[in-house]
Specification:
Blueprint (H helix, E strand, L loop, with lengths): L1 H5 L10 H30 L6 H9 L4 H28 L4 H17 L8 H10 L4 H25 L6 H28 L4 H31 L13 H28 L2 H13 L2 H7 L6 H9 L17 H30 L3 H26 L6 H20 L2 H11 L8 H8 L1 H10 L18
Helix pairs in contact: 2-3, 2-7, 3-7, 4-5, 4-6, 4-7, 5-6, 6-7, 8-9, 8-10, 8-14, 9-10, 10-14, 10-16, 14-15, 15-16
C-alpha cells in the first residue's frame, strides 16, 4: 500500500525496473553534466569559481528538445541583459534606496512584458536587483552577462551534440491508450446489452466513460506535439522518419470516433422517457418495487402506463427503453456491433502504433478483417431495425442515430483512406537521400553501377544481376 502511494504504476517485476528508471536516470545525468561542464568552462574563461550563474543557466535552458532549448536560451539571455541594463542605468543616477528598488522592479517588469519574455519575466527584476545591490555594478554586470552567455551556450551546444531522443514510441503508446480506453467502454456496454435491456443509469455511466476518454486524448495530443517539437534542430531527426503526421491523423480519427460514440449514448439518454428518471429517484427514496407498481397507476403517470401496455406489457417499473426500441434480437445484434466497434478501435490503434515503427502490414490486415466483420454485423442490425414499420417517431430517430453512429465509425477508420494519407506523409529519413549521393561520389561504386545496370532504370543485366548493390 505504501509503495503504491509512493510510486503509482510501479513495475511489478525486477526485470522491468531498469526500463522504467532509464528515462529518469538519463534526465538526471543530462542536466548534471550540462551544469558541471558550464561551471568548468565559466571558471576557465572568467576566473570566477564562486559565482554559479553559468551552471544555473545551463540547468534552466536545457530542455527536452533542441528547439525549446534554443528558445529558452534566447529568453534567458534577453531577460538577464534587460535586467542588467536597467540596474546599470539606475545605479548611475542613484544608489540603493527604497524608491530606487521599487523603480527598478517596476521598470523591469514592464520591460519584461513589453519584450514578451514569458516564463523568464521574473529573471529581469532578479538580475537588476542583484546588480543594484553590489558596490561595483559595472563589474558585476559584466560578470553576470558573461556567465549567462556561457551557461546558455553550453546548454545549446549540449543539446545539439547530445540530442534527446524523439518520443515517437511514447506518442504511439499514448494514441494506443486512447483506442483501448474507448474500446473498453464499448465492451462493457456490449456485455450489459447482451444480458439485459437498456437502463438509464447504465447508459449514463457509458456516456461518462466516453467523456473521461478526453483526458487520454489530451495526453496523447501533448505527446504527439512533443514529437513534432523534438525533431526541430535535432540531429537524430536525420536518421528517423517523421511519424508525427501519422500519429496526429490517427489521433484525430480516434477523437472523432469517440465523439460519435458519445453522441450515440447522448441520443439514447435524450430519447428515454422523462418519467423513468422520476421513477429512478422515487426508487432511491423508497426502495420498494410494490410501491412503485402502485405509483404507476396514478393519474399524472397514466400515459406511461398506457405506453407499457402498448409495448407488449412492459410495465413502468423498469427504468429501461421501451421494448419496441430494441427487442431481444435487435438488442443482441446491437451488443455485437458495439463489441465489433471496440475490436476495430483496438486494431486501428495498433495500426497507428505499428506505422510509427514502419511495420504496419500485419496490423493493416487485422484492421481490414475487423472492419469487414463490423460491416456484416452492421448490415444485420440495419435489417432488424428497419424491418419493423411500427413504432413512434422518436424510436425511429433513435434507430437512425444508432446506424449513423456506426457508419461514422466506419468512415473514420476507413483503411483505404489511411493508406492514401500514409503515402503522402510516410517518407524516408532525410539521411536516406544523402546515401545515393555519397555512393555515386565514390569511383568504385560509380564503376560498379555502370557495369551492372542496363539502359532501362528498372531492369538488370541478366548476366550480372547478382552484382546489384543492396
Amino acid at each position: 500500500m505504501v509503495a503504491d502511494r509512493a510510486w503509482p504504476g510501479r513495475p511489478t517485476r525486477w526485470v522491468d525496473l531498469p526500463v522504467r528508471l532509464r528515462p529518469t536516470l538519463a534526465w538526471v545525468l543530462r542536466l548534471t553534466s550540462a551544469a558541471v561542464i558550464a561551471w568548468l568552462i565559466a571558471a576557465r574563461l572568467t576566473g570566477i569559481s564562486t559565482d554559479l550563474t553559468a551552471p544555473l543557466t545551463a540547468l534552466l535552458v536545457v530542455q527536452a528538445s533542441a528547439f525549446s532549448t534554443l528558445r529558452m536560451s534566447v529568453l534567458r539571455v534577453g531577460a538577464v541583459l534587460t535586467g542588467v541594463l536597467v540596474a546599470v542605468g539606475f545605479s548611475a543616477l542613484a544608489g540603493l534606496s527604497w524608491w530606487s528598488l521599487g523603480a527598478v522592479i517596476a521598470a523591469s517588469l514592464v520591460l519584461a512584458r513589453v519584450f514578451r519574455l514569458g516564463e523568464q519575466a521574473l529573471e529581469v527584476p532578479i538580475s537588476a536587483m542583484l546588480i543594484l545591490a553590489v558596490r561595483s555594478p559595472d563589474v558585476a554586470a559584466e560578470a553576470r552577462i558573461a556567465l549567462t552567455l556561457v551557461g546558455a551556450g553550453v546548454g545549446v551546444v549540449f543539446n545539439l551534440v547530445l540530442p534527446s531522443a524523439v518520443p515517437s514510441g511514447r506518442a504511439g503508446s499514448a494514441v494506443l491508450r486512447v483506442a483501448y480506453a474507448t474500446a473498453d467502454c464499448l465492451d462493457r456496454a456490449s456485455r450489459s446489452m447482451a444480458t439485459e435491456r437498456l437502463r438509464r443509469s447504465e447508459v449514463e455511466e457509458w456516456a461518462d466513460e466516453t467523456r473521461r476518454v478526453a483526458a487520454h486524448v489530451a495526453e496523447a495530443s501533448s505527446v504527439v506535439t512533443q514529437v513534432k517539437e523534438g525533431r526541430r534542430f535535432n540531429t537524430r531527426a536525420l536518421t528517423t522518419r517523421d511519424v508525427e503526421p501519422g500519429l496526429r491523423e490517427g489521433l484525430d480519427r480516434l477523437e472523432a470516433t469517440v465523439l460519435a460514440i458519445r453522441a450515440l449514448f447522448t441520443v439514447i439518454l435524450v430519447e428515454l422517457p422523462p418519467e423513468h428518471r422520476d421513477d429512478r429517484d422515487d426508487r432511491g427514496d423508497r426502495g420498494d418495487r410494490d410501491d412503485r407498481d402502485d405509483r404507476g397507476d396514478r393519474g399524472d403517470r397514466g400515459d406511461r402506463g398506457d405506453r407499457g401496455d402498448r409495448d407488449g406489457g412492459a410495465g413502468p417499473e423498469d427504468d429501461v427503453l421501451p421494448e419496441d426500441a430494441f427487442d431481444e434480437d435487435a438488442r443482441l445484434a446491437f451488443s455485437v456491433v458495439l463489441a465489433d466497434v471496440g475490436d476495430c478501435l483496438r486494431a486501428y490503434g495498433r495500426l497507428v502504433y505499428a506505422e510509427a515503427g514502419g511495420a504496419q502490414e500485419r496490423a493493416e490486415e487485422a484492421l481490414a478483417e475487423s472492419l469487414e466483420i463490423l460491416r456484416e454485423t452492421r448490415a444485420i442490425l440495419t435489417e432488424l431495425l428497419t424491418s419493423r414499420p411500427e413504432g413512434r417517431l422518436e424510436l425511429w430517430l433513435l434507430r437512425g442515430s444508432v446506424l449513423a453512429a456506426v457508419e461514422q465509425v466506419l468512415v473514420q477508420l476507413d483503411l483505404e483512406r489511411r493508406a492514401r494519407l500514409r503515402s503522402a506523409w510516410q517518407r524516408p529519413a532525410p539521411i536516406a537521400a544523402v546515401a545515393p549521393l555519397v555512393r555515386d561520389a565514390l569511383p568504385r561504386a560509380r564503376a560498379r553501377r555502370t557495369g551492372t545496370w542496363s539502359g532501362a532504370p528498372d531492369s538488370l543485366s541478366p548476366t550480372s544481376s547478382h552484382h546489384h548493390p543492396r
